[in-house]
Design goal:
By secondary structure, this protein is of the alpha+beta class. It has 7 helices and 6 strands. Helices cover 43% and strands 25% of the residues. The chain is globular.
Length: 178
């Protein structure tokens, strides 16, 4: 994850952290993650981590809440990676009974605002930042199956070193051959 964040350009680092983030800030962020509260999801392209969703549970209150942060390297943006990460993060939050997911981005981060809007976030504009809130529904047997299926697909593709784009063709062939 550290290498992924270090590969982000100056502007993408600023958009991800809402301020200029030096290599030292990124290293401290990665070393300081509380793995009892954090769920980190990754998007791999060609065996390299190119996108990350960090879902950090916020202490206190019921139902529990979490803050979400996304990053996708510039060369891999506008390919659906951010949408896939956000979708998977929301399913993960839902299945862990998280009732509110918060996102904060700079007012100039139109891509993140568009992505939040796509997932029906309510957006509030405050002092140069945009705060988004998504209220995931309670888990269902379908959301649990969706999470397990996504994990199984990722494991299958990783085991055979296949690109994510191969998944629909593989699944289609499996359906036809039984």
């Amino acid at each position: 994850m550290r290498e992924h964040l270090l590969r982000l350009g100056r502007k993408d680092r600023e958009l991800r952290f809402c301020h200029a983030a030096s290599d030292a800030v990124i290293a401290a962020h990665c070393e300081g993650l509380d793995w009892l509260r954090a769920t980190v999801l990754g998007a791999f392209v060609g065996g390299e981590l190119r996108g990350v969703a960090e879902l950090i549970r916020v202490e206190g209150g019921w139902p529990p809440a979490a803050e979400l942060a996304l990053s996708v390297e510039a060369a891999h943006q506008d390919r659906g990676i951010g949408s896939a990460l956000l979708r998977h993060a929301l399913v993960t939050a839902r299945n862990r009974l998280i009732g509110r997911v918060y996102m904060v981005c700079l007012g100039e981060n139109r891509k993140m605002q568009h992505l939040a809007h796509k997932f029906e976030a309510s957006l509030a504009f405050r002092e140069g930042q945009v705060e988004g809130e998504i209220l995931p529904p309670w888990p269902s047997h379908l959301s649990l199956i969706e999470e397990v299926a996504a994990e199984g697909q990722a494991l299958f593709l990783a085991a055979f070193e296949l690109p994510l784009a191969a998944a629909p063709q593989i699944l289609d062939k499996l359906d036809k051959t039984g």
